[in-house]
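Hey,
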Amino acid sequence: MTEERVRWGVLATGGIAAAFTADLIDLPDAEVVAVASRTEESAKGFAERFGIPRAYGDWESLAADEDVDVVYVATPHSAHRAAAGLCLEGGRNVLCEKAFTLNAREAEELVGLAKQHGSFLMEAMWMYCNPLVRQLKALVDDGAIGEVRTVQADFGLSGPFPPTHRLRDPAQGGGALLDLGVYPVSFAHLLLGEPSGVTARAVLSEESVDLQTGMLLSYDSGALAALHCSLTGGTSTSASVTGSEGRIDIPYGFFHSDRFVLHRDGRDPQEYTANAADGTRASLKHEATEVMRCLRAGETESPLVPLDGTLAVMRTLDAVRADIGVTYPGEPASGARGTAQSSGFSP
């Protein structure tokens, strides 16, 4: 890594990899020097699209490339443990997409590898790096709405997704929870930490992945978080946090918000908006900038996206899956109560 530029490798060539790479190219202190895929054809096509000098048809070559300062892992989450683990074992720093892994056990293994090799590791929870979300967090921490009582958040897509889609495939960690539910759960964690109790109910597909899931998280403080994710209907994708002295409402797109409204008893509503210089709502640049700041500072994890928080979110997602009866190939049976059965709904 030079003082001027951080050299990135990209592992995978799908839609999120393309979006992140496009944003990296716009950053003057970032350079994308290599891309890897399972096939040379895919890697070369991606490299030509973005002007990347090296294209590898296997993951191992990217993990061994000493000219790469940090690898962005953008595979489906079912492959995160293998891909990120390979890069960490090769001495690379890693930014890994969310959901971080399939389960907490895999997440703990990656954290252990990062510590063993002294490498940087971060979950790509770009919501936590969003300046407006950080401002909301600061207001809550400073007591702007008093003691937090409830958090509400939802994320749903209208679909429909056919049985052949990866979101319906248990082997790829399919279902609403890991793809979409990770956002509401992470939002609740940002404000309340790890819950002391988890209750969930779901509608399962014929493939035994969750089509929609409702979650109620409870906390020792007496707070509750009511969360929802769905592959069967486009929701408002909004969030709110209510305290003893007020409320903050976040409209559509809470995880990449450009606006929220603070309501306090006896006062006019106060709107907060993103700085125009921060870029578009879809920008992943704040996340990349945080990674590069950490690397230059010699930090092995980000204070904005700490590894303990990532592990806590994965434990919560595990607890939800245990309650709704969703397991993935190679995992032990969850031992869930038999109340979350398929409703026969076909999207």
